[in-house]
């Protein structure tokens, strides 16, 4: 054995972790790193899902743990799918989803388009516009209930200023026809900035020289917008719609703060309905089946949508 | 096709002067090449004519009509950009058809298809018509962008180094093709290039730019044989013109400070002795790197020369170009 300074230095270095656990294969070491994560995933995601599926076939009630649990097959599913109240809830959710996404995409894209025309102070405007998104939904819900107050609310005064209607003559939250719109307005106010940011990213990804080429090719602003801007931003727009769709399908906090599902059950979206079934009426088995139905719906719709999105991207 | 006239055109970007007082006429049906190093203002002139930039002063006249206040669409010019600016979300066919589908033109669809097929055939991209624009090689993209200009019938074609990104074979093929198309259409073409062969073989006129100024404008032969100063002389010629002190050889005129020797100005076999430093065999000719009293001289010799590095060759100038202290030509 040689005894150069390098060899001595090598001997003086403490053995590495790898050499301590030598004898384990690379694969085994990989498993050691991955196992904690897999265990966590199983514990908080996979097991509850399987357990929920299991419960959905029973008449289990979480507030009566000692009662004997009966397996009742698909009866929960049958009851849910034939319940006209649940279909009303679904309709309310669909209505809410459609209009929030419609307004958010329309206003969000317009704002992004305006911000993207490089003018002085557009950074400041971006920051201001993005503010609502950074607030907590509970806070937003809370202060919009004040804005919607018929006697002191700024919203009602704003409307009355614009239209001349008496501010105390209408109640956004208490009225059967206006209450759903009150939620749409707040959600749009809060999440339009998010859609705007995604659209802005899309708009900024279009290089200037493409517009220059189009201008040389004698395309009008209108034609440039429809044949270049829209097709090139479309994948981003679709992504924004996907995010907002999934988020709003589980909309809970804002609605609870604003209307609590009322008046009556006009604004009772599926997530609120589900929470009532599970934790107010304690029909755990029934609620489990309900949750599975919602899960399959969102999952199915999202998969179809993602396929369409990929198609657009490949075009 | 139309004549294009630039009158005292100037353009600055902040403190940088891109184009300064340029006056030139691109005659109807002419193939005009702009030469100059990077930053000389070649691309800016194209952008000014196309209307993508507006001039600080001066006028642009296309077909007898001042277009200074018109949009690019109104000017009806076609332009090939240096970076292939294709529409990435469209197929090759749609890219080529895009200018024809302009609502201004109202071209019937069967005519569009015919025109696109015709141009695709000339540029040899017919087999790629249904590909997405991003699924092409660099050379193919550039051909599509040339094609997008050729489908149109504009007042003038503006081309910004359109062949620079192609491989040598394709470049020489397309050079000939482009010249053929230009001649058969009688098209007016303003062309920017670094490539001396392109400038010499394709153009009817060459304009040499230096720092935004038009230094000399004339036929390629005029520019080559009769440059007005050292700068212009250095723009054309492969190998580059050799610059030596004027008093190195007898016979220089009064005031001459430097002499320019192109290979054809160098007579081998008599005169001052030089040492051969390097011999480059180019196939059809041999390039000699010589050392003459401390100065480098590059010249050509016939392909079956037996010269090797270290040999001695005597050289003597024959009708060289003379320049004064400021670089201006002395005749």
TrEMBL record, chain A:
**Family of this protein:** Belongs to the binding-protein-dependent transport system permease family.
Keywords, A to Z, come to: Membrane, Transmembrane, Transmembrane helix, Transport
Does the entry feature the keyword Transmembrane, yes or no?
yes
Q: According to its record, how does it sit in the membrane?
A: Multi-pass membrane protein
Q: Which domain of life is it from?
A: Bacteria
PANTHER family attached here? GLUCOSE IMPORT SYSTEM PERMEASE PROTEIN GLCT (PTHR43759:SF1), TREHALOSE TRANSPORT SYSTEM PERMEASE PROTEIN SUGA (PTHR43759)
Species of origin: Roseibium denhamense
Chain segments annotated as transmembrane: 28-51, 96-115, 127-147, 178-203, 224-246, 287-306
Q: Name one Pfam family in it.
A: BPD_transp_1
Q: Quick check: keyword Transport in the entry? A: yes
Q: Where found?
A: Cell membrane
* CDD domains reported for this sequence: TM_PBP2
> Which positions fall inside the ABC transmembrane type-1 domain?
90-305
**InterPro entries per the UniProt record, alphabetical:** MalF_N, MetI-like, MetI-like_sf, Sugar_ABC_transporter
What protein is this chain from?
Answer: Carbohydrate ABC transporter membrane protein 1, CUT1 family
TrEMBL record, chain B:
Instruction: Tell me the Pfam families matching this sequence.
Output: ABC_tran (PF00005), TOBE_2 (PF08402)
Q: What is this protein called?
A: Carbohydrate ABC transporter ATP-binding protein, CUT1 family
- Which PROSITE patterns does this one have? ABC_TRANSPORTER_1 (PS00211), ABC_TRANSPORTER_2 (PS50893)
Q: InterPro entries per the record?
A: AAA+_ATPase, ABC_transporter-like_ATP-bd, ABC_transporter-like_CS, ABC_transpr_MalK/UgpC-like, Mo/tungstate-bd_C_term_dom, NA-bd_OB-fold, P-loop_NTPase, Transp-assoc_OB_typ2
Q: Which UniProt keywords apply?
A: ATP-binding, Nucleotide-binding, Transport
Question: Hey, which family's this protein in?
Answer: Belongs to the ABC transporter superfamily.
Q: Which residues cross the membrane?
A: none
In the record, which residues are listed under signal peptide? none
Species lineage: Bacteria, Pseudomonadati, Pseudomonadota, Alphaproteobacteria, Hyphomicrobiales
Q: Which portions of this protein are annotated as coiled-coil regions?
A: none
**All residue ranges annotated as the ABC transporter domain in the record:** 4-236
**Gene Ontology molecular-function annotations:** ATP binding
